[in-house]
Specification:
Helices cover 13% and strands 30% of the residues. The protein is built from 3 helices and 20 strands.
Length: 319
């Protein structure tokens, strides 16, 4: 059980959720917004009307909380005006300073402040807030878009570009791969067939994994997509995703001369431990599906089908 003025009890009454650690300070998150530090006791609201609600309903409990935590001053609530030269308000930030945990006030502001305004405007926002609250211990940190500013009163509020997040690492597609599916497991491999073959009418199909070069695939980058080629047929033949309704090769996927057609441009979409294979031709809604070689569907050849929750559409790349 927590006491009446404990933030773990108070926060739910404000419609928020307490987070952090009791030993290091707790903070209250309202409307999905978080404080700058787990060492502050802070409140954040997103509408100007919330300020009056806060003052009317929660001021006394906030005062009790401040007193019980040995904090300086009192809880404060500020509504930013909608029309300012550095913000997009209205924004309400209510915050408490905890003497034991924080050296100064934690200023909360809408993170979109700097999104389109640039460094100079953000620095001005910091200066305006520190002047408003006063005191040498007032600190300000704002971040929005790719701009970050931090400092405290008396500093120059140096402006620096926030580090850009590193792009998500894609799969390492160098070398040769066997293509297997969750559906048929380790024993079956995708084989690029000669289009003139009488086997499966020349379509690509799943066969027993064996030492044949038609089961060794190479991913060749082309823009944001890849061409799929086999060691067996070399550089000039590419896997083509056929429309399932086509009469050519009974609508199955097949190896064709590499050319400027979007059905030969493949995208790998991560799914669990594998990938879905889609073409620029048919887009996100169609996925390459491995078929049982004995199936009567497409005579057992692989084909493009509606993307759905079936393991035959989850491909594993095995070196």
């Amino acid at each position: 059980m927590c006491g009446e003025t404990d933030i773990r009890c108070l926060c739910p009454e404000l419609g928020g959720q307490a987070q952090g650690f009791a030993s290091h300070g707790l903070y209250c998150v309202i409307a999905g917004q978080s404080a700058d530090s787990v060492n502050s006791l802070s409140y954040r609201m997103e509408a100007a009307s919330d300020c009056a609600m806060f003052d009317k309903k929660m001021a006394s409990k906030l005062g009790e909380l401040v007193k019980s935590k040995g904090a300086l001053g009192s809880g404060k609530c500020q509504a930013a005006k909608p029309a300012t030269n550095y913000g997009e308000g209205p924004v309400v930030a209510c915050y408490i300073k905890d003497r034991r945990n924080m050296p100064g006030w934690t200023m909360l502001w809408k993170d979109s402040v700097a999104r389109s305004k640039g460094c100079d405007n953000v620095k001005q926002a910091c200066l305006d807030m520190t002047k408003k609250w006063g005191g040498s211990d007032v600190c300000c940190t704002l971040q929005g878009g790719d701009v970050a500013v931090s400092g405290k009163q008396g500093d120059s509020f140096a402006c620096a570009r926030a580090a850009a997040p590193a792009p998500a690492a894609g799969p390492d597609l160098k070398g040769w791969f066997r293509l297997k599916t969750q559906f048929q497991g380790d024993g079956k491999c995708f084989e690029g067939n000669a289009a003139t073959s009488t086997t499966k009418d020349g379509a690509a199909f799943m066969d027993n994994c064996q030492n044949v070069s038609g089961q060794l695939w190479q991913f060749v980058a082309e823009g944001e997509h890849y061409r799929l080629k086999t060691q067996f047929q070399g550089e000039k033949k590419c896997l083509e995703g056929n429309a399932a309704t086509s009469t050519y090769k009974n609508g199955a996927a097949f190896m064709d001369d590499c050319k400027n057609v979007s059905g030969q441009l493949w995208k790998l979409v991560p799914e669990g431990k594998g990938y879905r294979l889609k073409t620029a031709f048919q887009g996100d809604g169609k996925c390459l599906e491995s078929n049982a070689a004995t199936s009567t569907t497409k005579d057992g050849a692989a084909f493009m089908d509606n993307c759905q929750n079936v393991s035959g559409q989850i491909w594993l790349l095995v070196r």
